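Lab meeting, action items carried over

1. Structure of the two-component assembly. Owner: GW. Status: complete.
Input record:
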Amino acid sequence: MVGLGRVVPEGIYLIARTTQSRFEVGEAARTRVSTRNDGWTPARPDEADTTSQRRIVDEETNRIAEEIRVRAGRGETIRVEKTVALFSSHDRGIGEPGREARLALRAAGDFDRLLVAHRRAWAALWRRYDVEVGAERPVPAPAGGDRTSGGSGGEPTGADLERGEPGAEHDGLARTQLILRLHIFHLLQTVSPHTVGLDVGAPARGLHGEAYRGHVFWDELFVLPFYNFRQPSITRSLLLYRYHRLDAARELAREAGYAGAMYPWQSGHDGREATQQLHLNPLSGDWGPDWSHLQRHVNAAIVYNIWRYWRATGDREFLRDYGAEMVLEIARFWASIASWNAERERYEIIGVMGPDEYHEKYPDAETGGLRNNAYTNVMASWCLRRALDVLDEVGASRRAELVAALELEEEELDRWPEVADRMFVPFVDGGVIEQFEGYTDLEPFDWDGYRERYGNIERLDRILKAEGDTPDRYQVSKQADATMLLYLFEPDEVEQMLARMGYTFDREAMARTIDYYRGRTSHGSTLSKTVFASVVHHLDCEEGCRLFQEALRADVEDVQGGTTREGIHLGAMAGTVAIVLRRYLGVELTPEGVVLAPEMPSRLRRIRCRVHWRGRWLDLELEPGVLRVTTDRDLPEPVPVRIDGEWREIGPGETTEVAL
Amino acid sequence: MVGLGRVVPEGIYLIARTTQSRFEVGEAARTRVSTRNDGWTPARPDEADTTSQRRIVDEETNRIAEEIRVRAGRGETIRVEKTVALFSSHDRGIGEPGREARLALRAAGDFDRLLVAHRRAWAALWRRYDVEVGAERPVPAPAGGDRTSGGSGGEPTGADLERGEPGAEHDGLARTQLILRLHIFHLLQTVSPHTVGLDVGAPARGLHGEAYRGHVFWDELFVLPFYNFRQPSITRSLLLYRYHRLDAARELAREAGYAGAMYPWQSGHDGREATQQLHLNPLSGDWGPDWSHLQRHVNAAIVYNIWRYWRATGDREFLRDYGAEMVLEIARFWASIASWNAERERYEIIGVMGPDEYHEKYPDAETGGLRNNAYTNVMASWCLRRALDVLDEVGASRRAELVAALELEEEELDRWPEVADRMFVPFVDGGVIEQFEGYTDLEPFDWDGYRERYGNIERLDRILKAEGDTPDRYQVSKQADATMLLYLFEPDEVEQMLARMGYTFDREAMARTIDYYRGRTSHGSTLSKTVFASVVHHLDCEEGCRLFQEALRADVEDVQGGTTREGIHLGAMAGTVAIVLRRYLGVELTPEGVVLAPEMPSRLRRIRCRVHWRGRWLDLELEPGVLRVTTDRDLPEPVPVRIDGEWREIGPGETTEVAL
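Predicted assembly:
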C-alpha cells in the first residue's frame, strides 16, 4: 500500500503496489446517493447532503471505504451511483497512478454521460467484430447503423444468457449467437485497441480470474488469428510482447543447453519460465511432479502467429525489425534440439511433451519427456522452412545485419533445410500419425468403465492419479495433439508439408488420424473440442458443427466444473469464433487477397461479419447457396477475392454475389 | 531509494525511485581490476584477488560504492574495467529493475565481448544514418562495408573534435563532417530504434543535461523529420507519445475556454502544461513574469509532423487510429481560438506568442500575448485544411466513427474551410510578412551600439531587462518566426497557401521578408541560424551554406556561453543535418515517390547518404554536376524518383546517374 485518503471535493482513493514487480495501481471512487425526493439529483459536494450521512472508514492502514447511511422510507427507491477511476503505473502519458485516478474522477461526468461514451465505444467495436449466425428470433444486431444516440450496444446481458436452459436445444441458434457474442465480448475485454502498444500479452484465462496467475501460454495460437481478421495492429502488439521477452527466451535456451531462443511454457511479465514444478491433484490432495514445461511446441506457436500476421498484412517493417529475429532464433533452437539418428537417417526431437498433458513421460521412465511428438516435429520442420523464407523476405541488407547480429554461421544455415526435410515423424499402420513414438504401444483405455464410474472424465489425469495409476500408461489424450496440424493448416498444406519430409499423408490418412484420436481424447482442455470441431469440419460439416456447439458450452456452462469462475478460457473463446470465420465462411487472408471457401452447416441460417484486409473492409454475408461480398468505399483500389477457387476483383463499394 | 546491496558473485546495486512520478531505476555495477602481472586477467570472484583489496561502502542509506585499493609500482599499468547494467521500471519485459540489473550484470560478458556488440549496433546505425559531405582528408566512413569484425564504428571521438581550432577555417570540411556526425550521434543517443514503442518523446535538450528538465517543446518540429528519412517507425513512436497525451491537451483547452486539444508549450511525462510562470534573468538576478506558454504554435508543429509522416509513409493505420484524432482536435482548437473581426472581414488569433520569445506582449500591455502572429495564423489555416483532408483520407466508416466519438457537428466542420481561407495575416509594405500585428510600429533597435557595448548580444532579452528596458519595445527577434513558413514548406507551397487565403506573396516578397528579419534577429535560440541557413538557401545557396557553418557551431563551440553543458540542443542538431538532406540534396518523401532537387554549395565536395522510402533504401551520391541514385535489391518493385522535375523509375539494384 502506497497511499490512501479523501479526494477533494468528493470520494476516496487508494494506491497499491505489487510485492514483487512493484507495479502500482491507483484507484479513486466516488459514490453519489439520491432519492426521488431530491429529483434523483445527488447533492453537490458543496451543498448539505440531506439524503445521506457519510463517514470515511480508514482505520486500517491498507484499506479505505466510505460508509453512507441513508434514511429509506417504505417503498422508497434509492439511487446509488458509484464511479471509479483506475490507473496503473504502466499506463501511458500519466504521472503517478493515484494522482491520475483522482484527477480523472474529478473530471468524470455522471453516469448518463459516461454511459454515452461507453455505448459509443462498444458500438464501434461491435461494428468491426460482430459475427452474426442468423438466429431465429431477433437479437441485438450491433453491426448495423450508428448507435450513438443511446441504443443498446448489443452486449449480451446476464438475463439473455439465462433465458435458455443450459444445454437445452430449444431456441438453439439464438443461444449460439449469444455465446459467440459472449466470446467476442470477453476477447475484447482482455485484448482490445487499448492494448496496442502496451507491453502486455494475451493471458490464457483472460483478465477474469486468478487461474494460471495471468500467465501466457501457447493459447495465443488460438487468440492472435482472431485479431488478424479485424485489427492486425492488435496482433502486432501481442507479437511485440514476445519480442520484448526474446532475451529471456535466449537465456532459457542457453541454460537448457540449446542454441537460439526457447520461449517458456508459461511466463509472466519478465518472460522467464514460470511453470510449476509440482502439481496439486485436488482429488487426492497429493502433490506430484509436473513436467509440462517440456512443451517446446510453444515456440512453434510464436512462429505460426508471426507468419499468419505477415501473410495477412504484408507488414514488412514488423518482419524486418522484430519478427525475423524471433523466427530465426526459434529456428536455431529447433535445429539445436534436433539430434541425428544414424540408424533411421532422420532427425529426432527427444524429451519433449506435446499439447496432450496426460503424457508427460513413458510409464517406466524416471524423468519427463517423450520421443518424437509428431506435432512438435512437423512444426519444427515448418519453422525452419519459414526461417529460410524470412531471410529472403527481409532483403539483402537486413539479412546481412541479422546474420551479423545473431552470429549466424553459414554451416548453421546450411543445416536448416536438411533438418527440416529429414525430421522424423512417427506413424501407425494405415497412415495414422502417431502422437508420439510409442503411443500405440500403450494400453487401450476402458472408456466405458470409467465413464460409468465417474461420469465426467475430462480430467482423467486426476482420476487415474488419485487411483494410484497414471494416464502415461494408456492410449488416452487430454486434448488434440496430432490433429493440431489440421487445425492450423489446410489439408493440402499438411499433405505438402509431410510430402516434403518424405511422408505420404493423403485425405484418407487424415480422416483416419482424426477418427483415431477422437476415440482416444477426453477433452480435458477446453481447446480440445474447438480443435476437433474445426478439423472434423473437413470430414463432415454437420458433425463438425455438432462439436462446435459442444465447444461453445465450455465457459457459459462451466463444463469443467468450476474452472470458469477462476477465469474464462480465452483460447477456446477465440477458437470457436474462428471456426465460423475460417471454416464456415472459409476466410483466409493471403498476400494475394482474401480467399473465401464457404461451407455452412445447415444448423446456421446465415452468417454475416466483416473482415479487414490491408486497409480495406469487406462485408461478408453467407446464406444457403449464396455468398455476398461488399467492399467499403474507403480506398480506391479494388480488393482481390478468391471465391470457389476463382479470383475476382471487387471495386470500392461494390457487392459481388456468388451462387455456391 | 528502494534498495541497495551487494551483487553475488561480484558487484553492487542500487534502486532509486523518483519522488513525484515514482519511476524506479535499478543499477548494478561491477569493477574488475587487473595488472600486467596477472596477464590482464582479473581475478574470478571465487579466487583470491591478489591484485586489489575491496570494501563495500554503504554507510549511508541511499548510497553505495565499492572501494578498491591496488598496490601500484612505479610505471606499472593498472586496468580497471567497470560494467554497469541499468533498467527503469518502464522497460519492457522485465520484473523490477533492480533484479533485472543484477541478472544482466551477471550475464554480461567482459569488456571485449561487450565492445563487439556495441560496435556492431553502431555500425548498423551508421549504415543507415550517416551523411557524408566529402571531407578533404579521410574520415571514418561507416556507411561502407560490414564492420562486424571489430573495425571502428565511425563515431566521432573527443580527440577528433579537438583537432580543429574552434571556428578556425583550416580543414573546414573535415570539421563540418565531424560535427554533422556528432549531431547524428547525439540524435541517436536520444532517440533510436530502442525508443520505438516506449512512451517517450524527444526532449528539447536530449538526454545530456538537466536544462528544461527533460521537457518536450515544439523542437520536435525539427527532430521528427530527421527520422522520416531513415526509420519512420521512430517518428511514429514519437507521434504516439503525443497521442497518449491528447486527453491532457483537451483538458488544457477546456480550462482555457477553447474547444478541441491545446497541447502545452512545455510538458513532461503526464503531458500537462509545465512551462514556468516566472523567469530568472541571470544578468540582473531578477525574476520576471514569463508568458512563453502562450506559444500556441506548438499545436501546429504536431499536425505538421503527423502530415509529414503520413506523406512519407502512407501509414493509413496510424492516420486512422491515432493521427486523425490529434489533427481533428487541434483543428477544432484553432477554429475556436480564432475570432471574427467584422471590420476586417477576417478571422484573427489574439493573445498568443510566436516562436520569437523576445515579444511576449505589447510594450504598454499588462498581460502577455500579441495580435495575429503571422506564423501562427498561417499554420492555423493550414491545420484546418489538413483536418479536412484527414477526414477524406481515413475513409467513410472511420470518418463516421470519429465524427461520433469527437461529437463533431456539421456546422463546426462547415466553419473550418471558412476560417482557413479568411484568416488574417499582417503584412508590411512591399509584401514583407509582419511577424505580428504592430511589429513595424515598434522602435528600431541600435544593433551596433549594443554589439559594441556587450559583444555577444544573442540573449538581448536579458541584457535589455537588466537595463530596466524590454525587447518588447523593439524591432528585434530572438529567432526565426515569420520566416518559419519558408523553413517548413517549399516556396511554391507558401505562395499557394497565402494565395488561397487571399494574399499575394511572390518570390520577391519572400526574399524581402527573409532579408527584413535577418537584419532584426539576434539568434538567441540555436534553432534560429538553422532556420535562416535553410531559408537563405533559396535566395543564395553559398550564403545559406555560410549560415549553415555557423549553425553547426552551436553546441560544439557552446556559442551561447554555457548552455551546452546543461544539455545539447536537439532541434538545432537535427535541423542542420536536415539542411544537407532537404536543401543540398533536395530530398522530399512524397506519396508518389522520392523527389530530388539537389543544389550543393561549392564548399561541399560530395554528399553521400541513404534514405528510406516505403520499405526501400536509396543510396544517394551528389557530386558537382552529377547525382547518382542506387536502389537496394531488397524489393522487386521499382522506386519512383523525380529528379530535376522529371519522374523515372529505378529498378532494384539499379543506379541512375543524372547530369545536373
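2. GW to write a short summary for the group page. Key points so far: The first helix of chain B runs from residue 97 to 107. Residues 137-170 of chain B have pLDDT under 50 and may be disordered.
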